[in-house]
Amino acid sequence: MPAPKDPQKAQAWKDKLRSYWKGKSQNVGINNPFYGKKHTKLSISKISRAATGSNNPMFGKNHSIETRKKMRIASAKRPPRPHIKIHFSKSTIKALIERNKKLKPMLGKHLSESHKKLLRMKRLGTKLSEKTKNKISKSLIKRYAGCYFHDMKKLRHDLLELNEYREWKSKILFRDHGKCVRCGTRINIHVHHKIWLSEMIYKLLLKHMSIKTKDLIKFKPLWDIKNGICLCEFHHMNEHRKRNYPTLFRRLDEKN
């Protein structure tokens, strides 16, 4: 029942409600006349009938965005109650199963061997599109992310020990006169990759599922002199602090 529009009547209506709930709050625990009792199945069915369909005050209505926000805030403030378990009625469980069957007609079923053979025969000679290939590669990368990072570490370690890598470093040191590009010092000079080494290896892993050190030697962007610069230890550390590997790989996935 909504509050009356007249302010005096509305105030009287609010006071009446407060007095009603004050009386109710006293009937807590042992003081409650229904303490230790349970509703019968008949009374439960009557209560449910009284609050279902058109009898429900929220029937055909939706909560506003503001109300939903308030409900979310209120539920977040509530302490967790692990002792309380939600039990679905048999009718609800049946309705959920039927809904799942409609959405997933093959749920709980298996294809016969003859049907599998027919599907194989239909797929013979067909080629996957580039979009489908990219989707499959992304899903495989997510599945085997741990293996990929392990491979990246191993490949990086092998790459740093290659003669080609040492030659690449010496060329950059010779070009920059063994000085830091930022401050001009000659103490503790490091060779830094503009495009990250891990990024380049990751791109290779995206294209080819397995890579060896031989494949790295053939990969031309790794040996491009323009990709390297001389930095002192301080500026090199600053460059590496900017790195955020999870966001880097997410960005690469979005590009591909």
Strand content: under 5%
Q: Give the total of beta strands.
A: 2
Protein structure class: mainly alpha
Low-confidence stretches: 245-256
Report the biggest beta sheet as strand number plus sense, adding barrel if it closes. Answer: 2 strands, antiparallel
| Spatial gap, N to C terminus | 58 Å
Overall mean confidence score, pLDDT: 77
Helix-strand blueprint:
Blueprint (H helix, E strand, L loop, with lengths): L6 H20 L14 H10 L14 H13 L12 H14 L9 H11 L6 H14 L1 H16 L2 H13 L13 E5 L3 H11 L5 H6 L9 E5 H9 L3 H11 L1
Antiparallel strand pairs: 1-2
Write a short abstract of this structure.
With 256 residues, this protein is mainly α. The protein is built from twelve helices and two strands; from the N terminus they run H-H-H-H-H-H-H-H-E-H-H-E-H-H.
Key descriptive features of the protein:
12 helices; mainly alpha; 2 strands; 256 residues; 4% strand; two-stranded antiparallel ribbon; 58% helix
Can you walk me through this structure?
This protein is mainly α and 256 residues long. It has a domain at 142-255. The chain is built from 12 helices and 2 strands; from the N terminus they run H-H-H-H-H-H-H-H-E-H-H-E-H-H. It has helices at residues 7-26, 41-50, 65-77, 90-103, 113-123, 130-143, 145-160, 163-175, 197-207, 213-218, 233-241, 245-255; strands at 189-193, 228-232. It has a two-stranded antiparallel ribbon with strand order 1-2. The model is unreliable at 245-256 (pLDDT under 50).
